[in-house]
Design goal:
alpha+beta; 452 residues; two-stranded antiparallel ribbon; Outer membrane efflux proteins (OEP); four-stranded antiparallel sheet
């Protein structure tokens, strides 16, 4: 075989392998994207970074409770030291002059200390009274732990709701794309009929250019609908925690499967009653505990203390002092401390302001929820009226389609007129579907608002 032929064959194989790999990757990505709402919510809860962070914060809050409770336990401290001592002036300042057996005696007292010294000791400390600060720390950490649990529950609810909204937004976009494609297909039929009539001489005055413009407008509408579908798909993927993907690979062959009757309150949303309000209540309790902690700053602190110390010395060998360690002294006592001034009054004032802010935040949140509930209730009633009217229109168009179908079978109507009636019926069926999705979402939002 010639070299050019081999190179050509190699290029064909490489291109074929690349195309196959791309097709497999595309199919894999399409399979990875959940088509059911429950699966989508489960996927997002396992994949979103903010939920992983909330879980770590929950673990940290639990550890802070243990740390705060640890202040009620006694403390045992071990300490040790070693040093080298060089005495320069050994004179102690004491001299003795006297006589022994008629002879004068002069004695000068000198200070002698071994050069090497080792010390070790154990200190036992138990707080008897802390001015209420330890209890306040425990209450604060427990309240923060509870607030974190409600925060995590609130994040789960928000993520579930975000996925629900993006899911149904994409579902509506897919329906609207289908409506646009039906209009484009019917416009193509109209253009084909007009051109056929002109070419056959049956209707020389047929306006094919007008039909062509209608088809081009329908083609633009399809492009716009697909663009909207791509935006909705991007938001849906991002709500699942999927970023930096080529979302266009999902535009063909991927359809969501749930119907409007599947719009229901997810289990995770229903599991936590009013998580936002309860989180604010827990934070308010933590602020109250901080006030008590600050007020305890100017109360006395009482500790029971005990220590036991060892010492070892040697004048010639550094390490020999360890083997010569003996008991030195031990103490037992009560330690009382009282802060006279350190600016703690400002800390008390700050803690009280934080408590007042907590009250106001809770009140503000409850008022906002009440206002939002009323707005969503009004929107729900409006959507109910629109869905009812759409349902009535659908019945009328269904009757018209059936009548046209009978006349078409009897040869009294053209195929084009039948297709127009069929398209009109399907369009209104899709519009009814969109109205039902909007109504179901409105009911869902109202139900969730009542729980927040």
């Amino acid at each position: 075989m010639s070299r050019p032929f081999l190179l050509s064959l190699l290029c064909v194989l490489i291109v074929g392998a690349a195309a196959t790999a791309y097709g497999q990757e595309k199919a894999h990505k399409t399979e990875m994207l959940p088509a059911r709402l429950d699966d989508a919510i489960s996927f997002a809860l396992a994949n979103r970074v903010e939920l992983a962070l909330a879980a770590k914060e929950r673990e940290a809050a639990s550890l802070r409770v243990k740390v705060a409770a640890g202040k009620f336990l006694p403390r045992l401290l071990l300490s040790g030291s070693s040093k080298y001592l060089k005495v320069v002036d050994r004179f102690t300042g004491s001299e003795i002059n006297g006589s022994v057996g008629g002879e004068e005696v002069h004695v000068k007292a000198e200070n002698f200390q071994p050069r090497y010294e080792w010390r070790a000791g154990a200190d036992f400390i138990y707080n008897l009274y802390s001015g209420g600060q330890d209890s306040a720390s425990v209450v604060e950490s427990q309240a923060e732990q509870k607030a974190q649990r409600y925060e995590e529950s609130s994040i789960k609810s928000k993520v579930s709701l975000e996925v629900t909204k993006t899911y149904w937004t994409l579902r509506k976009a897919q329906v609207e794309t289908g409506m646009a494609q039906r209009s484009y297909q019917l416009a193509q039929k109209h253009l084909l009929v007009a051109e056929t009539k002109i070419s056959s001489g049956l209707n020389p005055g047929s306006d094919s250019e007008s039909e062509r413009l209608v088809m081009q407008e329908a083609e633009l509408a399809v492009a716009e609908a697909k663009s909207n579908e791509e935006v909705a798909l991007t938001k849906y993927c991002q709500s699942l925690g999927l970023y930096a993907l080529d979302y266009t690979v999902y535009l063909s062959g991927f359809l969501l499967l749930d119907a409007p009757e599947d719009v229901r309150e997810p289990v995770l949303l229903a599991a936590s009653l009013q998580p936002e309000a309860r989180r604010l209540q827990a934070e308010l309790k933590a602020a109250e505990a901080r006030v008590k902690f600050a007020e305890g700053s100017y109360l006395p602190k009482v500790d029971f203390t005990s220590s036991y110390n060892f010492v070892g010395r040697d004048d010639a060998n550094y390490f020999r002092g360890i083997s010569r360690m003996r008991s030195d002294y031990y103490t037992i006592g009560i330690n009382v401390s009282f802060t006279v001034f350190d600016g703690f009054w400002d800390r008390v004032a700050l803690a009280k302001r934080q408590e007042e802010m907590g009250h106001l935040r809770l009140r503000q949140a409850l008022e906002q929820l009440e206002s939002q509930n009323q707005e969503k209730l009004n929107g729900k009633q409006k959507l109910q009226r629109e869905a009812y009217l759409a349902q009535q229109r659908l019945k009328l168009y269904e009757g018209r389609r059936n009548m046209v179908a009978v006349r078409y079978r009897n040869g009294k109507l053209s195929e084009l007129e039948y297709l127009e009636a069929e398209k009109t019926y399907k369009d209104f069926a899709d519009k009814l579907l969109l109205s039902q999705i909007d109504l179901a979402l409105s009911k869902l939002l109202l139900a969730i608002s009542n729980r927040q």
